[in-house]
Amino acid sequence: MKLVSLKALCYRSLREETITFADLNVFIGANASGKSTILDALRFLHDAVQERDFRAPVYSRGGMVHLAWKGEEARRIELTVKVIEDGNIYEWTIELFRDGYEFAVVEDVYQFRSGEPKSHLLSAKKGEGWWFSGEKGDNVKLAQSPTACALAAAAADASFPARGIAEYVSRWGFFDPNPFLLRRDWSGLDSSRFDPYGRNLAERLYFLSKSAPKIFAQIVAATQSVLGLPSSIEPREFEDRFNFVQFEPGLQFPVHQMGVSSGTLRMLALMTALFSESGSNLIGIEEPENNVHPTALAAFVQNLLIVRDRVQILVTTHSPYLLDLLDDAEAVCVVRHTAHGGTHVTREKDVPAVRKALEASGFGLGEYYETTGFGG
User: Fold this and answer.
1) Less CB within 10 Å around the terminal CB: N or C of the chain?
2) How many Cα atoms occupy the beta-carbon half-sphere of 58 within 13 Å?
């Protein structure tokens, strides 16, 4: 299954925008242009499926008032994702609307097959509705709270034709490792999945070193290919607390996790996200250039391209240099904030024309972007 598009209405800075996705997607733009909002809209849907309810995802973002487009009254938010599997296209739409002092949800799921009329597989409003059961060949009544996720509820039925959407969305991963959090020892987190902010990095590395030593070695080697260190890493556990030390060239003694540089910690965390999250089918990464010297980005890009063969990648960036290193015009998504219409995303439609322009000018993709060549 693969993500084809996201349509957003009144979700934060996305007033009315449809974004299409390829295997690799690099969203580049200025501060406050809306790059992170695109990833957050997808993460919002992921959180709702995981929680089986929209309440926590809405209120953790400040509630409807702060989640909705600020250019008008916060009455309605709508998100629609299209995914494709074996030639079949599925469309999942959720609408959040004000309901007194609270909010409620409308959900619909459709299936599109070539040469056939679309099939309505799920319909719910304020917790009341139905889903289609393949086993019964009929609709099953749905009754739950007004903010519950109907797709997650229907996915409990193994014969629900769109069950795969819920499983697919629940396996998305989004990562923005924070060096301050990476230095601390956090306990009580799920060690089977890497935390979005890297809080369980030491614990994750410890269990990988025991249960998946090849992946652990790949993470260390990938980090070394980017930064030139560490020579090795030794994760440690004592009374259910975890930390690690790293060995560096030229040093007699190892460096404790607390003393590792911000750039090394962040890149180690990003490599952990890319190579250890084998269950993820879509990975979003926020600004990989942060805390990393520009010359190290080349090796990072090579590791990114390795992972692209098995997972859909979404990256936000400020760095034109990253575009030069990728040298893939089809992956570039330019994000701009318009004066009155919110975020607008431009993906190049005529890639051969871009190639000709680059050959004629001698520019790289980064320079081409800076001259507003993409949709300028």
Assistant:
1) C
2) 24
The verdict on pTM exceeding 0.90 is yes
The ranges of the chain with pLDDT < 50 are none
* Whether the Cβ atoms of residue 19 and residue 38 lie closer than 8 Å to each other: yes
d(CA 141, CA 95): 20
Tokens encoding 343: 């975020």
E strands, 232-319, are 232-238, 241-247, 255-256, 282-286, 312-317
Q: Are 280 and 311 in contact (CB under 8 A)?
A: yes
Q: What is the pLDDT of residues 345-376, one digit of tens each?
A: 999 888 998 889 889 888 899 998 988 767 55
Which of 5, 17, 23, 26 lies closest to 374, judged by CA?
26
Give the per-residue pLDDT at 371. Answer: 83
Q: Which residue has the tokens 């989640």?
A: 67
* Structure tokens belonging to residue 187: 């306990």
Q: Provide, rounded to the nearest whole percent, the portion of the chain with pLDDT above 70.
A: 99
User: HSE-up of 216 (CA within 13 Å, CB side)?
Assistant: 18
Burial code of 293-308, b = ≥16 C-beta within 10 A, e = fewer? Answer: eeebbebbbebbeebb
Q: How far apart are CA 175 and CA 283, in angstroms?
A: 8
